[in-house]
Automatic annotation (TrEMBL):
Annotated source species: Clathrospora elynae
GO CC, alphabetical: dynactin complex
Name of the molecule in the record: Dynactin subunit 6
Domain of life: Eukaryota
Bias kind Low complexity: ranges: 100-114
GO biological process: mitotic spindle organization
Keyword Cytoplasm included in the entry's annotation: yes
């Protein structure tokens, strides 16, 4: 019986822990301004080359996309952006020739140079809600407006306060909607007299929204450290 020790078995290949992690190829915004109370879920995306500003208590659900590739993006206090919603100029589908022609005609008929300047970016005011799969390229969306599932707001749109854009509605570029407008059945419009004339109903709506924000903070892990 040989006194020679048995040859050691070769150690199995192990992936080195020093291998660098894969980095994203998407451009990062030139600046990101976040309030410390913002909730950004895992897998939310903030990309682009212009600034992105997000106000207090705003919530970004998983797989939301904010793009400042062509112009700045500003989200005011208490906004909620649900799964797979997209916000920012250039996030919509490439317009066809007819849409481009219509957009150019609307731009020529704009009331003033100030209006054209306002279209150079996307601004969501306080407590705006953008539901799943909606696309927002609008210049301004007023306080308390709700953009329902799959709705599309074209470039340069100016949407008033407490509007409701129903599911799958498409708002053409440079459209203006007054406060309390409800868009339904694709393109039909009416004014929500209940919210307009009964402030107690509006106050209740705001209260419910605040409770919803608190619920999200309890249920959704916050990944804000990645962006801070």
């Amino acid at each position: 019986m040989s006194g020679q020790p048995a040859p050691a078995r070769p150690a199995p290949d192990r992936r080195s822990s020093t291998v660098p992690k894969r980095t994203s190829l998407l451009p990062k915004p030139s600046s990101i301004v976040l309030d410390s109370s913002v909730l950004i879920a895992q897998h939310a995306q903030l990309t682009g080359t212009h600034p992105i500003t997000i106000g207090p208590n705003t919530v970004l659900h998983p797989h939301t996309k904010l793009s400042s590739a062509l112009a700045p993006v500003v989200l005011g206090e208490g906004c909620v952006v649900f799964e797979r919603a997209k916000i920012g100029i250039g996030m919509g589908a490439e317009p066809d020739a007819e849409s481009r022609q219509s957009s150019r005609a609307s731009s020529r008929n704009s009331a003033s140079t100030r209006d054209s300047m306002r279209s150079e970016g996307t601004v969501l005011a306080k407590n705006v809600v953008v539901e799943s799969n909606a696309i927002v390229e609008a210049a301004e969306v007023g306080e308390g407006t709700v953009i329902e599932v799959g709705a599309v707001l074209g470039r340069g749109c100016i949407i008033g306060k407490y509007c409701t854009i129903s599911a799958s509605s498409i708002i053409p570029p440079n459209t203006r909607l007054p406060d309390y407008t409800v868009v339904f059945s694709g393109s039909q419009q009416r004014i929500d007299k209940t919210l307009q004339l009964r402030p107690e109903i509006l106050d209740a709506k705001v209260t419910v929204h605040a409770k919803q924000l608190d619920m999200f903070k309890k249920l959704i892990p916050n990944n804000i450290a990645k962006w801070a």
